[in-house]
Amino acid sequence: QVQLVESGGGLVQAGGSLRLSCAASGSIFSINAMGWYRQAPGKQRELVARRPSGAKTNYADSVKGRFTISRDDAKNTVYLQMNSLKPEDTAVYYCNAEVVTTTLAEFGFWGQGTQVTVSS
């Protein structure tokens, strides 16, 4: 129905940068919000950043000033620019999209996840 394909994860040293991308495709009428969540081993999935359409962007306190979320609505794509990375940013990062489908139903969809590892 709707697919989210992520890219851009990898291994980086502390202080480095990575850029994640997530492209949504399929039966999309509109997208209400796109965002990024992460899950570290043994921890619950948590919000990293969320960008609603026409509303204020939300960031986790732990990433404010270091991470920037952006959207290209023409491409149904969301990006996460991660700077000044810390070992505690190590996690699987998941893209999320709140979609209105072509049948005008609203669903949340998840990407497959991409590993980000920050070495000290």
Concise summary:
The protein has 120 residues and is mostly beta strands. It is built from no helices and 11 strands.
Q: What percent of residues adopt helix (DSSP H or I)?
A: under 10%
Rounded to the nearest angstrom, the radius of gyration is 14 Å
Structural class: mainly beta
Q: Return the average pLDDT rounded to an integer.
A: 97
Number of helices: 0
Question: Mind describing the biggest β-sheet?
Answer: 7 strands, mixed
| Head-to-tail CA distance between termini | 40 Å
- What is the 3D form? elongated
Strand tally is 11
**SSE succession:** EEEEEEEEEEE
Uncertain ranges: none
Our estimate of the beta-strand percent is over 45%
Helices and strands, with pairings:
Layout lengths: L1 E6 L2 E4 L4 E9 L1 E12 L6 E7 L5 E2 L7 E6 L4 E6 L8 E11 L4 E5 L3 E6 L1
Parallel strand pairs: 2-11
Antiparallel strand pairs: 1-3, 3-8, 4-5, 4-9, 5-6, 7-8, 9-10, 9-11
Structure description:
The chain has strands at 2-7, 10-13, 18-26, 28-39, 46-52, 58-59, 67-72, 77-82, 91-101, 106-110, 114-119. It is elongated. The chain has no helices and 11 strands. Helix content is 0%, strand content 62%. Strands 2, 4, 5, 6, 9, 10 and 11 form a 7-stranded mixed beta sheet that branches. The model has no long low-confidence stretch (mean pLDDT 97). The protein is mainly beta and 120 residues long.
